[in-house]
Amino acid sequence: MNRRWIYGLVVAGLLVNLAIGAQIYLTSPKVKNVADSSGPDLQLFTDVLEKIHRQYVDGTNLTYRQLTYAALDGMVAKLDPHSEFLDPQSYQQLQDDTEGQFGGLGLVVISKDGFVTVVAPMDDTPGARSGILSGDRIIKVGTNSVVGASLEDVVKELRGAPGTTVTLTVQRPATGMVKEFTLARAIIQMDMVKDINDAKEFPLGENQIGYVRITEFGDQTSDELEDALQTLEGQGMKALIIDLRGNPGGLLDEAVGVCQKFLPRDQLIVSTEGRESMEKYFAKGNGDELKGMPIIILVNHDSASASEIVTGCLQDLHRAYVIGEKTFGKGSVQTIFPLDDGSALKLTVAKYYTPSHKVIHEHGITPDSFVPVTDYQEAAVMLQHTLGAVASLPDNQQAKVKSVRDTQLERAEDVLKGILIYDAMNAAAPPQKVAAK
Fold first, then answer.
1. Which residue has the higher pLDDT, 49 or 27?
2. Residue 209 belongs to what H/E stretch?
3. How far, in Å, are 43, 308, 353, 392 from residue 303 at the CA level?
4. In the chain, is it the N or the C terminus that has fewer CB atoms within a 10 Å radius of its CB?
């Protein structure tokens, strides 16, 4: 009897231990991850895919690839506004944009009054050599009408492999002319750093104040900025304005490359922190190329991502004074994962932090001097700084746009003039004599 009682007690103890162990095991994070396996959900996805492909009333021409791409696009879009599934064509366009060159015609176009309208042909491109003018409306690409089409869709049709041809039908509102142009696409090099006239000449402004506008952070941005700085320094530049208004960002490495031109070697520029990694980026240049020269950065609510890295870094380190409006607040890191079929996944994997560890994402950069502008002022100033844009407007609007003042740029110039006058006065002042005791 005693032996049976002892065996029963041991068995009961084992059962209790087993129950407790099972509870701990089932509630552990590792087991939760095992329970959240993809198997059943992939089967669910396959079942829905099959039903749509076989039974959707308007799905006669639907392919499995189309349905899969649509599903992936919807899934990634639910994560955040900056993650994206890119089909092969979209991925190629992204590569073209960041590399700063693509196969195209060299036409700068905007959407205006329901038409894709030429702002200006770029110099020495098929578009410029063809005789297409600012203000011309593209009404057909090939045999297809593009009246009312989205700007993005028309740009996709204009771009293509260098050497291939495309036929455009253009309407010229000024004369009523409608004409066809057959153009051969060529490699188009986009300029990322421009002067105040939307060119690459970089004239020195009044009071020896230089101006550069960085439109995007692509593969060549830091090299183009280096050329611009050398041109301006060769003319005797004493202060610099960097215009990042409307700059949507781009490549992290190029933002670092821009910052390090104005910072001592080994200075922390930006850090990124994600679930699986933390990276720190330091200046690797030869030190401050401008030797402490006063710098002002212009920003607005469309300055984002890499623009905010540059602004936040140079502001944090008191290397630049920031004027304009609070920036967009897109301080997250997207990594591109190429996929086997030519598509890609652009996925948010980390967030940016300034040298003082201020988070950029959803906060933005607050300027040192807040200078607000209206939407009309902002649009007019952007047109003024885009070659041929004002000329493409109707005659009754051109004078109105030209008369709009760039109050943010004016504020920057005034601040720099004051700094330069103060420095000149200090340099000219005789040294103070100290009486001997």
1. 49
2. strand 209-214
3. 43, 7, 16, 26
4. C
